[in-house]
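Issue 218. Parser rejects a valid record. Input:
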Amino acid sequence: LADSVLAALAPPFDVDGHRLVVSASIGVVEARVADTTPADVLKAADVTLYWAKADGRNRWARYDPERAAADLTRYTLSATLAAGIEREEFEVEYQPIVRLSDSGVVGIEALVRWNHPTLGRLGPDRFIEVAEETGAIVPLGRHVLREACTRAAGWNAAHPGADLFVSVNLAVRQAHDPALVSDVADVLAETGLPARLLQLELTESALLGPAGRPVDAISALAGLGIRIAVDDFGTGYSNLGYLPRLPLHSLKLAGVLVEGLRGPAAGAGRIVTSLIALAHSLGLTVTGEGVETTAQAAQLRAARCDLAQGWLYARSAPWSEVVVELDRPRS
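Output the parser choked on:
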């Protein structure tokens, strides 16, 4: 029935000397009559109609309860994000970054979690995209940066010469925020963390602006002495041409590449080895993400990878737990 409606509307219409082209977006709902009200059906049809529009228009979509539930959850997150930041529902956890040569901890990555009052504890994959869309990512990112720098500054002050760096992720919208450079400089001045002990992780899309030009803020941040790292390197389309043009310090190999090192397949190992060699030729250090097995660590070590992080070494945890490990005497 929906296809026949679309087909009927496809030919142009002539009205008062004007040729009109009309298309339709259609929502289709199948539901048992029992335990279903007309209002429920119309509400579901309206939701599905907008799915058809979002998927490209001039088509029909069928109602999917799981997608509807996901949309409702997404709406709930969007509506409660700002209040969640004000109520301090967001918590920062930390995951150690280690030297592959001796497993010594050289840095920590700050990872945000949301203790949502109704949905429970949420990882960043559940809310970061929504935070970017709503603009809440800017105050949220500022909160994470301030706490992470405060923790790292305090620990380094108590351990002179340790030079433990903290790594903080920047989303695309943060990278394009006009106040980014001044915000970061203010946080460093406020917390007393040396700029060289702060690493900012950005994906390729955050590093590059329109027409593939590097975002101006990146050079300004690097000018402050901050480390700049490319996060999730090796996923999707990686434009290697931008690497020499940016003031980068490090590449973080995507977890999907490290995952390929679990088995005996030589292809994944050759790709990883080539990327590490490329990075080293540009004077960059390399971190392998998502390391879970000793075999993965061994292959990264053989490929001369510099650093690693993952469950093999430690899961992310609150600062109170991480600092115990950091303070533990090393043999």
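Fixed in the parser; the record now loads. The chain is about 45% helix and 20% strand.
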